[in-house]
Write a structure and sequence with these properties.
The structure holds three protein chains of three kinds. Chain A is α+β, with helices and mostly antiparallel strands. Chain A has a single domain (29-242), classed as Ribosomal Protein S5, domain 2. Chain A has four helices and nine strands, in the order ββββαβαββαββα. In chain A, strands 1-2-3-5-4 form a five-stranded mixed beta sheet. Chain A has a four-stranded antiparallel beta sheet with strand order 7-6-8-9. The longest helix of chain A has 30 residues, at 209-238. By secondary structure, chain B is α+β, with helices and mostly antiparallel strands. In chain B, the strands form four sheets. In chain B, strands 8, 9, 10, 11, 12 and 13 form a six-stranded antiparallel beta sheet that branches. A four-stranded mixed beta sheet of chain B has the order 1-6-7-3, with no helix packed on it. Chain B has a three-stranded antiparallel beta sheet with strand order 2-5-4, with no helix packed on it. In chain B, strand 8 (64-72) and strand 9 (76-80) form a beta hairpin. The longest helix of chain B has 17 residues, at 191-207. Chain C is of the alpha+beta class. Chain C has a single domain, classed as Ribosomal Protein S5, domain 2, CATH 3.30.230.70. In chain C, helix 2 (101-117) packs across helix 3. Chain C starts with 8 loop residues before the first helix and ends with a helix. Chains in contact: A-B, A-C. Chain A binds chain B through residues 40-41, 58-61, 70, 73, 112, 114, 117-121, 149-158, 192-195, 230-231, 234-235, 238-239, 243-246, and chain B through 1, 6-8, 10-14, 25, 27, 29, 34, 36-38, 40, 52-56, 84-86, 125-126, 150, 152, 208-213. Strand 9 of chain A pairs antiparallel with strand 12 of chain C, so a sheet runs across the interface.
Chain lengths: 246, 226, 271
């Protein structure tokens, strides 16, 4: 972030963004649940040009033992970007940014997962960004949420995530990579749609109090749209081809 | 969906509101009954539950389970029972009350990788579930192949009063031992029968929640190919 | 706080009971931060420094300024980097060794708060475009940990940067060379202030101390600038906030931030 000069027109006079979207439109999103054999739960998401895989194990035994909690299960999350996921090859070693994002995603999922039912165990969430294009932490959280549900781990609610932001003094939904680099603000949001709680929230960039409120509201609407896609992904896994239930 | 009392739900969805008792896989939030797992919700006269489509086995006393020995200490074996917790089998269960940890060799009776048919003795979440093999039909499993299915599909595999499992056994000449924990051992002298039995079990795991399953299984068992 | 800190149940109950009555354990109002003292120039060898005491939390921050290569694509801007470390002497559960996720988050949140506000006009820190720029490094060392390191480190960094002196370099033979005896004030455009709030039940508390930190449901750190605009935000903790609570927190951050900003303004004027 920093509002670099760019030849890119972020918002033209018709209210169309640099990738052809309107201000309240998200990129194309598709989610598939249950894509891995070994993980207890898994999901693959394509969010714009982001391609992210999430796998979940657990609840399972905790190692090292001193990390386990006698009263409740714990949740751990690793967010990692593959070296080939970005334009300039990224060193495979975990960066500080990845560690922070892993923490933030873990804390976004924690209120949803009913860990008190499984003392002394851990739920491990592994997210791998195979291709990155702005808004990876939201897409990762969307995939992780589906993977947890796919694993049959009891949850109070899903967590649905989407970012909102500001370019050319206008609040927009779902910030892509160019908009993140050259825009004025980026606000990733993780939201539990049925409980109405925000569990991931960060902001880079400057917003007036009124813009802040609008940005939050816009992002939450985006989260609700993602929720419908997550729900359909889980349904499709068990009822592919629109087959009927027994 | 013809029956509006059953529908596909995901965690967080409100199934219904009202004076219902929340049963498996639902919670009560104020007056709302909310699903906590992906599954099919069922509303009865006075209660609501969700039949899960996924999830690990939660140990219950008296359940018959299949376990795989994964390690041991000098006092007990640990078994993978497809749950969040490992099953604990005390040495005294096998060696008897006069069990001597320093002289009785644990690995002489059971070692890593052995499969056992066991029963859950008790389970509370503050410690790992206790299992026993001290019964006639329990103990080390010497032959057969291990198949894993989702524990939530076990009732379907057994069928009403055992009809489904009996049908599969008869059609394939296989002996099938079903653990409530979703671990199933299939043994047969007939390799084709073994394959068919495994396929039937796999079909139930994948399609237990869908219509016409019984017919599909019947058709598969009767056909000459797998 | 490091995860192995366990708050005793009695105290936890006391804190909750008092909150229900509208009181905090240490007698503060819900929107009241702890006492804040800021001393600057405490490390004369550094180009800028500050020691901040926020309640019983203490942070010492040093600013070092030196020539550096610019970031690629940003050849017309100086460099600003902020780090943070919890010294093992700060708390019984703090361990030496590579930083854990808590410390990494702390450093990154403090860095973003200052960076996103545009506090230092980096375009004024160029020695030779695309080749040589001035780098400002603010390193925070937590020496005593009693909760809310975000605000303490943010304040200490801001104070150290406000009162630092930038040496002068000239490019001689293609290399930046120090010109002794000529120092200048940093190009400051705004003063960012971070305000961290904890949510315990339905109560929002400003500047949680260690005990409140240990029983909070969730936290949010909001940084505002001199215009009263919001320039950075981080939600943390194992639970969440309703959208209404978030707006409430943003309003508190603006008003509480303004009061702290006054103290920081005085440092600047006292030069």
């Amino acid at each position: 972030m920093g509002g670099r000069d760019s030849d890119l027109v972020l918002l033209d006079e018709n209210g169309i963004r640099c990738d052809g979207r309107k201000v309240d439109e998200t990129r194309n999103i598709s989610i598939k649940a249950g894509v891995l054999k070994n993980a207890n739960g898994s999901a693959y998401i394509e969010f714009g040009d982001n391609k992210i895989l999430a796998g979940v194990f657990g609840p399972r035994d905790v190692h090292p033992k001193h990390m386990s909690d006698t009263d409740t299960g714990i949740i751990r999350c690793r967010y990692h970007m593959s070296p080939f996921s970005v334009t300039e090859r990224k060193n495979p070693a975990p960066s500080r940014r990845e560690i922070e994002i892993g923490k933030v995603i873990k804390e976004a999922l924690r209120p949803a997962v009913m860990l008190e039912k499984f003392p002394r165990t851990a739920v491990d969430v592994y997210v791998e960004v195979l291709q990155a294009d702005g808004g990876t932490r939201c897409a990762a959280l969307d995939a992780a949420s589906v993977a947890l549900a796919d694993a049959g781990i009891p949850m109070r609610d899903m967590v649905s995530a989407c970012a909102a932001g500001k370019v050319a003094d206008t609040i927009i939904l779902d910030v892509n990579n160019e908009e993140d680099q050259a825009g004025q603000a980026d606000m990733p949001i993780g939201y539990m749609p049925n409980l109405g709680k925000v569990t991931l929230l960060q902001l880079d960039g400057v917003l007036t109090p009124a813009e802040f409120k609008k940005c939050l509201e816009t992002g939450i609407e985006g989260c609700k749209q993602v929720y419908e896609i997550q729900k359909q992904a889980l349904k499709d896994k068990f009822f592919a081809n629109g087959e009927q239930q027994s | 969906m013809a029956d509006n009392k059953r529908r596909f739900v995901i965690p967080g969805e409100v199934i219904t509101t009202g004076p219902y008792r929340p049963e498996q896989n639902v919670i009560l939030e104020g007056k709302k009954i909310i699903a906590t797992k992906v599954g099919i919700s069922e509303i009865y006269d006075d209660s609501v539950k969700v039949i899960p489509l996924a999830g690990k086995y939660i140990p219950k006393s008296e359940d018959l389970v299949i376990g795989k020995i994964i390690s041991h200490s000098s006092l007990s074996w640990e078994a993978d029972i497809n749950s969040c917790y490992v099953g604990m089998l005390p040495g005294s269960d096998v060696f008897g009350r006069n069990f001597q940890p320093d002289t009785d060799e644990m690995t002489s009776k059971l070692k890593k990788g052995d499969l056992i048919a066991a029963r859950i003795v008790n389970f509370d979440r503050s410690r790992d579930p206790l299992i026993t093999i001290a019964d006639r039909e329990l103990g080390k499993i010497d032959s057969g192949e291990l198949v894993r299915i989702s524990p939530s599909k076990v009732p379907r595999l057994i069928g009403k009063q055992g009809t489904m499992i009996q049908a599969i056994e008869m059609a394939t000449n296989a002996t099938i031992t079903i653990g409530q924990n979703g671990l199933v051992v299939v043994a047969s002298e007939n390799p084709d029968g073994l394959l068919k039995a495994k396929k039937a079990i796999q079909m139930i795991d994948e399609q237990a929640h869908m219509a016409n399953l019984t017919d599909k299984i019947k058709a598969m068992l009767e056909s000459n190919s797998v | 706080m490091t995860s192995t800190f366990v708050l005793d149940q009695l105290k936890r109950n006391q804190i909750n009971d008092l909150l229900e009555k509208g009181q905090r354990y240490d007698g503060r109002r819900f929107d009241e931060p702890r006492s804040l003292t800021i001393e600057t120039g405490v490390i004369p060898k550094a180009d800028g420094s500050a020691r901040v005491r926020l309640g019983d939390t203490e942070v010492v921050t040093g600013v070092k300024i030196q020539p550096d290569r610019p970031f690629p694509d940003m050849g017309d801007k100086g460099i600003f980097i902020c780090t943070a470390e919890i010294l093992p002497l700060a708390h019984p559960t703090a361990e030496p060794g590579p930083p854990g996720e808590d410390v990494i988050e702390l450093a990154r949140v403090v860095d973003r708060g200052i960076r996103e506000s545009g506090m230092v006009d980096l375009s004024q820190l160029v020695l030779e475009k695309d080749k040589s720029v001035i780098g400002i490094f603010a390193d925070n060392s937590v020496t005593d940990h009693d909760g809310n390191l975000f605000d303490a480190c943010s304040c200490a960094s801001t104070a150290a940067i406000l009162t630092c002196k930038i040496p002068k370099w000239e490019i001689i033979n293609d290399k930046p060379t120090l010109v002794e005896g000529q120092k200048s004030d940093p190009p400051i455009t705004t003063i960012p202030v971070a305000v961290t709030m904890a949510r315990i039940g339905d109560h929002i508390l400003v500047d949680p101390n260690a005990d409140e930190w240990a029983c909070m449901d969730a936290r949010i750190t909001i940084t505002t600038n001199s215009n009263g605009n919001i320039c950075a935000l981080q939600k943390g903790g194992d639970d969440g906030f309703t959208p209404e609570q978030i707006i409430q927190c943003s309003e508190i951050a603006i008003s509480a931030g303004a009061k702290i900003r006054q103290k920081l303004e005085q440092l600047r004027q006292g030069r």
